[in-house]
Amino acid sequence: MNNKAIDLANSVWFKNNNQGEILYDQSWFTEHFLTEDSTLEIPLKASFIEQLLTLRTLLLEILSTGEISELQREQLDEYLSKAIYHPKISYKDGIMSSSWFCVSDYENQLLSEIAQDLIRLFSENKIEHVKTCSNDECQYYFIDHSKNKSKKFCSSKCNNLIKMRRYRAK
Ligand SMILES: [Zn+2]
């Protein structure tokens, strides 16, 4: 399962590598952040992209240190409070249950979900397993789910690339 906070943090790669701001790329954004039932308007509003960029700066600060300061906690709480949820009754196979339903607009819901995903890294003790890819040209953040926590690369793509380079260098 991907983590939206990590995805947003990693989007800075394109800017750092002089490829412009990827958040303006509709297809990239849709692929990473939108689900079938999301009602977010595409193209994104410039004001919303600004909010995402501000949140990304905060995420990068937190991921680089692995800690959340008092001030950062307040800032995250601010994002969390943007989405207003209430329980809603639903029926599935004739069984009644209630689940959380977001009543605010999807922009605020997404900002809140990204902040929730960051907090999940801490609450589920995954933050210590968040690493940066050992491919110097990549350096994407990823969660190491491997048993012995020995993963060095964000993807098999980076892994194979470096293996191939080492092999050629021999
Ligand atoms: Zn990588």
UniProtKB/TrEMBL annotation:
InterPro entries, A to Z = ABATE (IPR010852), ABATE_dom_sf (IPR023286), Znf_CGNR (IPR021005)
Q: Which Pfam families match?
A: zf-CGNR (PF11706)
Q: Which residues form the Zinc finger CGNR domain?
A: 130-170
Q: Name the chain's protein.
A: CGNR zinc finger domain-containing protein
Q: What is the lineage of its organism?
A: Bacteria, Bacillati, Bacillota, Clostridia, Eubacteriales
